[in-house]
Amino acid sequence: MSAEKILEQLRGAVLKYDSDAAVSAAKAVIHAKMDPLQAIEKGLVPAIHDVGEKFEKMEIYLPELMLAGDAMKSALALLLPLVPKGEKTSKATVVIGTVQGDVHEIGKNIVSSMLMAGGFEVIDLGVNVKTSTFVDEAKARGAKIIGASALMSSTIGSQKDIIDYLSASGDRRRFTVLVGGGPTTQEWSDEIGADGWGKNAVHAVKLASKAVKGR
To answer: Which of 120, 175, 186, 214 has its CA 20 to 30 A from that of 6?
Structure first.
């Protein structure tokens, strides 16, 4: 099978929201001894960008965006470990997680996948993440951006806690803090002093890219 055919399969798997097909295409990349970074950049990235544009235009909806993210993540799980360290390039490192007391992860997972497709190195801390863990991991991993997700109105206060924690330790200016999640708003982001509010996964990636350019 030609390299172009394999790239088409990678793109098609994401565009068709098919995780199994994405895994098969990633295995074909490995079997054909293709450059895994090229497969990511020419196969997966354009596809997830197309999905993001369709979502913004309301041509598809959240379930499709989630499935596309899952498909891409499945392929990345096989391809990223094969990229030589010296060849890996990233815009910046992002530490992301769902705040303490909240165990919802769907939105966070979509944002993580979209960030990876957008060229970021993503450290996913999971759910129910302590305030101090966000900050400690961001420092330890050399992250520039902290992404805090909250899906319950009772937990959005933990987003403010992260900003307060950074301010108290004198580290606030070291990090761009982005917040998001169902009960959050731009007004909430402004109120707590966050650097940006992602209304959806596509918007969150744009904010992260803008933050990197602004540094």
So the answer is: 120
Angular region, 175: left φ>0, alpha ψ -120 to 50, beta rest: beta
CA distances from 202 to 82, 116, 175, 211 (A): 27, 12, 21, 14
Locate tokens 């303490």: which residue? 100
Closest CA to 161 of 115, 137, 129: 129
Instruction: Give me the half-sphere count of Cα atoms (radius 13 Å) on the Cβ side of residue 117.
Output: 32
Give the tens place of pLDDT for each residue, 6-35.
Answer: 999 999 999 999 999 999 999 999 999 999
Sign of the Cα pseudo-torsion (210, 114, 194, 174, in order): negative
Cα radius of gyration rounded to whole Å, the chain? 17
- Please give the CATH number for the structural domain made up of 3-87: 1.10.1240.10
Rounded CA-CA distance 60/71 in Å is 16
Enumerate the domain spans of the chain: 3-87, 93-213
Question: The pTM is what?
Answer: 0.77
Q: State how far the Cα of 45 lies from the Cα of 42, in Å rounded to an integer.
A: 6
User: 93-213: which CATH architecture?
Assistant: 3-Layer(aba) Sandwich (3.40)
CB atoms within 10 A of CB 204: 28
